[in-house]
Specification:
- By secondary structure, this protein is of the alpha/beta class.
- Among the domains are: 99 residues, OB fold (Dihydrolipoamide Acetyltransferase, E2P) (Beta Barrel), CATH 2.40.50.140; 123 residues, Response regulator (Rossmann fold); 41 residues, no CATH class.
- The strands form three sheets. It has a five-stranded mixed barrel. A five-stranded parallel sheet has the order 7-6-8-9-10.
- Helix 6 runs parallel beside helix 7.
- The longest helix is centred in the C-terminal third of the chain and has 44 residues.
- The protein starts with a helix and ends in a 7-residue tail after the last strand.
- 18% of the residues are buried.
């Protein structure tokens, strides 16, 4: 109802979604709190299949949820257990999906490492209460520094890395080195003196305080109050590049800008020149493209105006000549077309002549085939007639009727069977006789011997 009232009254207040609110809260927490150490007792330890580690850090009166992602959890030198007292190096954050306050743990160690951490925590709390860590006191970095000062040891590898990075990215940039101790007894006072010297001389408009990586003891000079006070009092924008990305010192917290490494500090101070060079190249390319486009456009415009300045008589003469030329091309094209068509007609005529049947030859072949067919048919008929006559003569010789004509007779019994011997008949039996001409019935009166 409140949101509706605001809309109806014309209020200009922005209405945030839950996601946007959680995102803003996360950014505020992560920007407000740098990497810090938190001690407590582990409880509710969980190890899901993802490889991340989830747990809570608690003391007598409070607890906070923690997550250690797999890439960091794999580097743990010991196995975590519920009830273990540890110190966690963590980033204060918020899990947006659930709106839960949590610590993103970068490293863990057993609690009670030594007095250095207690001293670090006491000094950090003191300086924070005085406002030395407040973002609003930090000086803005110049985009195009005219001269860079470097506070470090002349023998440090960090100096070499910084100079190499600056030579690669901004070789024109003048550099002033303020030598100092960066480790051991008297290093903190030496660093503070070098910062005061750079501030008093005022020949640089940005200052780098750099050192390579090492243990907490090696980097302890940058955790001394004298160094923090010198950085806070420095009127020149100051960038620290101390140790590695996971190393955080009091000097980093007080500085106007913290870089992860000495090389990163050099990259930060030269970023404006690199961006400007990239933008210059882009603008130069865009300028050349625009100039070329405009030149072409003007040239086309001049050509167009030039065509408009042609005298009408000259234009008519050109049109007349063009018309005559087109007429000549038309006549030539027509003649060529007719020639091509006639040549095609001739080719078709020749192809037709090649494929037209020759009836005279066909008729002669037909007459020849007919004569051959007639002769073949006549010969076949003659051969078949002779064969038939031969077969008729053979049949005549085999014809039983012809045998009967020579005086023989055919004797059959009453059942029609032929009598070939007297043993087949008996006395008084009736027989049927067939002669060459006519038939007769007979009865056996006597049987003779064979």
């Amino acid at each position: 109802m409140l949101a509706e009232t605001d809309r109806s009254s014309g209020s200009s207040e922005e209405i945030l979604s839950v996601s946007a609110l959680n995102r803003l809260a996360r950014h505020a927490l992560e920007n407000r709190f740098p990497l810090l150490w938190v001690s407590g007792e582990i409880s509710n330890l969980r190890r899901p299949a993802s490889g991340h580690i989830y747990f809570a850090l608690k003391d007598e009166s409070a607890q906070v949820d923690c997550v250690m992602f797999r890439s960091r959890a794999q580097l743990l030198p010991f196995r975590l257990q519920d009830g273990m007292l540890v110190e966690a190096r963590a980033l204060v954050s918020l899990y947006e999906a659930r709106g839960g306050f949590q610590l993103n743990v970068e490293a863990l160690r057993h609690a009670g490492i030594g007095a250095l951490f207690e001293a670090f925590a006491r000094l950090g709390a003191k300086l924070e209460s005085e406002g030395l860590f407040a973002p609003e006191r930090r000086l803005p970095l110049p985009r195009f520094p005219s001269q860079v000062g470097i506070v470090t040891s002349l023998q440090a590898a960090a100096l070499r890395d910084t100079l190499v990075a600056l030579a690669r990215r901004a070789p024109h940039l003048p550099i002033v080195i303020y030598p100092t101790l960066v480790q051991g007894d008297g290093a903190a006072d030496s660093i503070a003196d070098a910062i005061h010297t750079a501030a008093s001389r005022g020949d640089c408009n940005v200052l780098l305080v750099v050192r390579g990586g090492g243990s907490i003891e090696d980097l302890w000079a940058f955790n001394e109050e004298v160094v923090a006070r010198a950085i806070d009092a420095c009127p020149i924008p100051l960038i620290t590049g101390i140790g590695h990305e996971t190393d955080t010192t009091i000097a980093d917290l007080v500085a106007d800008c913290r870089a992860a490494t000495p090389t990163a500090a050099a990259e930060l101070v030269s970023a404006g020149y690199v961006d400007a060079q990239s933008n210059l190249l882009r603008l130069a390319t865009a300028l050349r493209t625009e100039i070329r486009r405009r030149l072409h456009e003007r040239m086309q415009r001049i050509d167009l105006l030039g065509r408009r300045l042609i005298h009408p008589g000259e234009r008519l003469g050109r049109l007349r000549a063009e018309t005559a030329h087109l007429a000549t091309r038309l006549n030539a094209g027509l003649r060529q077309r007719i020639s091509f068509s006639f040549a095609g007609f001739q080719r078709l005529q020749a192809r037709f002549a090649l494929r037209r049947p020759d009836l005279r030859h066909a008729r002669r072949d037909l007459d020849e085939l007919a004569a051959r067919l007639y002769a073949s048919a006549s010969n076949g008929l003659s051969r078949r007639r002779n064969r038939m006559e031969q077969l008729v003569a053979s049949l005549d010789h085999l014809n039983p009727q012809a045998v009967l004509q020579r005086g023989y007779s055919l004797v059959r019994k009453a059942d029609g069977s032929i009598v070939r011997a007297s043993a087949q008949i008996s006395s008084g039996e009736a027989l049927h006789l067939t002669f060459g001409a006519g038939e007769a019935d007979a009865q056996v009166t006597r049987l003779g011997d064979n």
